[in-house]
Amino acid sequence: MKKKPNYPSKKNPNASRPQRVSNFESRPRNKKEEYAKVNGGVFVYSKPVTVAELSKAINVPSPAIIKFLFLQGKAVTINQLLDDETIGTICLEYDYDFKKETVVDEANFEELEIVDDPDSLQERPPVVTIMGHVDHGKTTLIDAIRNSHIVDTEAGGISQNIGAYQKEIHGKKITFIDTPGHAAFTAMRARGASVTDIVVLVVAADDGVMPQTIEAIDHAKAAGVPVIVAINKMDKPGANPRKVTEELMAHELVAEEYGGDIITVQISAKTGAGIDELLENIILKAEMLELKANPSRYAIGTVLEANLDKGEGPKATLLVQNGTLTNADYVVVGETYGKIRRMTDEHRAVLKSAGPATPVSVIGLSAVPSAGDRFMAFPEERQAREIAEKRQLNKTMAQRSGTAALSLADLNNLVNAGKVKDINIVVKADSDGTAQALKANLEKMSTDTIKVHVLSASAGAISDNDVLLASASGAFIYGFNVRPDARVRQKAEESHVEIRLHKIIYELLDEMELAMKGMAVVEKVESITGQAEIRHIYKISKVGTIGGSYVTSGLIKSGSKIRLLRSGVVIYEGKLGSLKRYKDDVKEVKEGYECGLTIDGYNDIKEGDIVEGYELVEKK
């Protein structure tokens, strides 16, 4: 009978652990399929593994692993996939180091490091995105550039909008991408697509820097993209370009005239004045960037937009970023594939091929991809189909493993492992002064080995746009005296973005300092029970102000701690006074039901206010 391994226990604490023998090494395997093994006391894996697979690799019985995780508060089965954190915890418990390797092949071509022969590289057009405040003439500028590109013989203008177009100046092309704004720009970044080489920031000369201008600046800086400022509406009587350049300095965009490196061009999108100068400066900036690509390889690029056409089926606008796409290629896009049946430009002219930085509209895909999906061309259908199937399988496994993005706990672990160099943070506060003070204090915490980057610091409620920026940049959000509503909170959970909420500055800074030192943070974590919207106000002399409310999420409990939110900003914190359904006192009211409530010691409630109930739970 085979003797069981003698593990340490309470009865026999001095027992030695079994020798590290990898069962993965002892059985024959196809080397291409190998994704988990032990190498010199280090458990190396490249994708999520099950309890059974980890058990065989580290030679520890599955029941022992399941019991260990159960005592840690995690109930798992033998065939359940384990996330990275759980794998690390198990390995450390049984004296193994662990390492996750990224196996790069054609199935995850987004991670392929393309190294082209320098002799094959040729200059390519720059890809430009125009961003700015909604009323500052961004659309007018796009139309002015687009209209100047229409040939005289083409009646009716551009016949087909494919989300991108090209402009030629002095024999050199510029590719412009139409986006609804910086949110779309960052949504593509969140999906791993970095398509823009230069951002043109449009600021109205008669209005100056506005909140959406600041957001656009933050998104461009987070992407590490050079910015050219187009000071628009110079034809208006109240135009003051000096005011614009001075306001931009507060956001670290220093114009060349003040000794900085930011190109500013005064234009009028309405009259067309200055547009040629703007285009010339884009060409100049592109020459400085030395943008090159290899047109001799199979194409790789990004989906700009896609839709289902009733007559032609799945239709997508692709931006070729490297290589040349032909109408004979098979392409893998996201988790789908297809053969290009027709390829056209923005004038609906049929193309046989498209080189680097060229936007094209294609039909022939088997399904509609998503904006931001990467694509790669292949010569054979079989190869494209197999890669698409493998990508779909990888996506399914990744979703099942539920690996989360960076959180404070992840940061703590990475600091202890010496793997952190940059920390990205989005700050939202109840006032701009507080936001800027927090930004200054957080960035002062940077050390020689760890740099703190505050991507955005602004006043107001935590919004979808903040979650999008954090998701794209691997950041977490610090909120000071502001709250996300239930919809934003859900979006943050779906995007695996952690939102940290505080109301005392030094507690926020202390928490960050401890995390940067790799020390555990013991805190009282808020557990949100629910939110209710106040829809009617009733004033009764002997009772006070009663809020006729509708529970929008979770449940509201009688006597619970609450905070009152107005436009996402905390205006009062206290305790729920009374809670009624019709005339009866109740202990709780669930989502989808109406109720009447009062706040203990506070009567200044208004229609549209949000009452948020919460509990405090101590957590390490």
Structure description:
The chain is an alpha+beta fold and 620 residues long. The protein has five domains: 23-100, no CATH class; 125-290, P-loop containing nucleotide triphosphate hydrolases (Rossmann fold), CATH 3.40.50; 300-401, Beta Barrel (Elongation Factor Tu (Ef-tu), domain 3); 409-521, Translation initiation factor IF- 2, domain 3 (Rossmann fold, 3-Layer(aba) Sandwich); 526-619, Translation factors (Elongation Factor Tu (Ef-tu), domain 3, Beta Barrel), CATH 2.40.30.10. Helices cover 26% and strands 33% of the residues. It contains 15 helices and 33 strands. The strands form eight sheets. It has a six-stranded mixed sheet with strand order 8-9-7-10-11-12, with helices on both faces. A six-stranded antiparallel beta barrel has the order 14-15-20-18-17-21. A six-stranded antiparallel barrel has the order 26-27-32-29-28-33. A hairpin with a 2-residue loop joins strand 8 (164-169) and strand 9 (172-177). Helix 6 (182-190) packs parallel to helix 13 (464-473). The chain is globular and about 80 Å long.
